[in-house]
Design goal:
Blueprint (H helix, E strand, L loop, with lengths): L6 E4 L1 H9 L11 E5 L15 E4 L9 H4 L25 E2 L5 E2 L19 E3 L6 H4 L5 H12 L7 E5 L3 H13 L3 E6 L4 H6 L5 E4 L8 H8 L6 E4 L4 H9 L7 E4 L13 H7 L2 E4 L7 H13 L9 E6 L3 H9 L5 E5 L3
Parallel strand pairs: 7-8, 7-10, 8-9, 10-11, 11-12, 13-14
Antiparallel strand pairs: 1-2, 1-14, 2-3, 3-6, 4-5
Helix pairs in contact: 4-5
Length: 343
């Protein structure tokens, strides 16, 4: 499939993935994006030329046992892998003018005016949603909202703790707000994040560098009279996963891991504590969302003015200024910076 007009938003998670793949041979890197179908291949029935779509790194074939199940969003027919090639035949669809092969990245490859994407990685969306908002739903923002909504199933009146108030953490807050959480506690090393977080439902804030001799988990336990109902790790640091698990409530507390740590990172838990505490620890790739069925729901909630997407976009630039976009992100001055290919 190709595009007629494309918008994309960059995230810090992408920058981390790039660093991990420096030796993979991949030339084109993925970002959140929205496209318009230019053409479709044989046997593609669910899409047609002119459809507004959101390419998503996580496959949804709608046919395998996992895609048909309500319990998983991890397609077994086209499993998620960090690969520079297409799913079905392990080849690339890109070449330079000189004939040199260019690689795909996570099956999306959005730093190009036209791209080829397998239908299992494309979700049709309502064309009424502006492209500079639809692009947010192809990765990080959907991940955070979905983690609260689908993976954790945050209940009304509950207490939520979010470790890391970047865009994904704030998206968790937005999802928890929509689910009716009463207390949403943000944890970050930057106290300025509290004011930003309030826009997405954060009610309290802890600066983890200002806890004195206490671990931040102990501070949270004292604030919540025994621990939070739901904890979300949105940074990608193993020790924070352990802190999050430590301060979720015994018996029913859930800790959801969203941050991407180094592949070799290890977690260390006391076996007896895990047995006795009755807590749950789980990961949530793409927030547990099924791309083809859940992303259109998020689009509708945005169009119905329930879901706040506008506040996530802090900057918009042309493709020529992409380095400026990365600088803003790395300096902590941007949540999501939308890049326009044709401005």
């Amino acid at each position: 499939m190709g595009k007629q007009r494309k918008q994309e938003a960059i995230c810090l998670g992408q920058r981390r993935k790039e660093k991990k793949l420096e030796n993979s041979g991949s030339s084109d890197k993925v970002v959140e994006n929205r496209r318009v179908v230019e053409s479709v291949g044989e046997d593609v029935e669910e899409l047609k030329e002119g459809d507004s779509v959101v390419p998503i790194f996580l496959s949804d074939c709608m046919d395998c046992v996992d895609c048909k199940s309500k319990k998983s969003n991890l397609c077994s027919k086209f499993p998620f892998e960090i690969s520079p090639l297409m799913h079905r035949d392990d080849t690339s669809r890109f070449t330079t003018a000189e004939g040199e092969t260019l690689h795909h990245f996570l099956y999306i490859s959005s730093f190009s005016e036209y791209t080829v994407v397998d239908v299992v990685n494309v979700t049709k969306v309502d064309p009424e949603i502006p492209p500079n908002r639809a692009c947010l739903l192809s990765c990080g923002i959907s991940t955070g909202i979905g983690a609260a909504w689908k993976k954790a199933s945050v209940e009304p009146g509950s207490t939520v703790v979010i470790f890391g108030l970047g865009a994904i953490g704030l998206a968790v807050a937005e999802g928890a707000r929509l689910c009716g959480a009463t207390r949403i506690i943000g944890v970050d090393i930057n106290s300025d994040k509290f004011e930003i977080g309030k826009q997405f439902g954060v009610t309290e804030f802890v600066n983890s560098r200002s806890c004195g001799d206490k671990p931040v988990s102990q501070v949270i336990i004292e604030m919540t009279n025994g621990g939070a109902d739901y904890c979300f790790e949105c940074v990608g640091v193993g020790t924070l996963v352990q802190e999050a698990f430590a301060c979720c409530r015994k018996g029913w507390g859930k800790t959801i891991v969203l941050g991407v740590d180094k592949p070799e990172s290890q977690l260390n838990f006391n076996s007896l504590e895990v047995l006795m505490s009755g807590k749950t620890l789980t990961g949530a790739l793409f927030g547990g969302l099924k791309p083809k069925s859940d992303v259109p729901i998020l689009v509708k909630r945005y169009l119905d003015k329930e879901l706040q997407l506008d506040k996530f976009v802090t900057h918009e630039v042309s493709f020529e200024d992409i380095n400026k976009a990365f600088d803003l992100l790395l300096q902590g001055k941007s949540l999501r910076c939308v890049i326009w290919m044709d401005k």
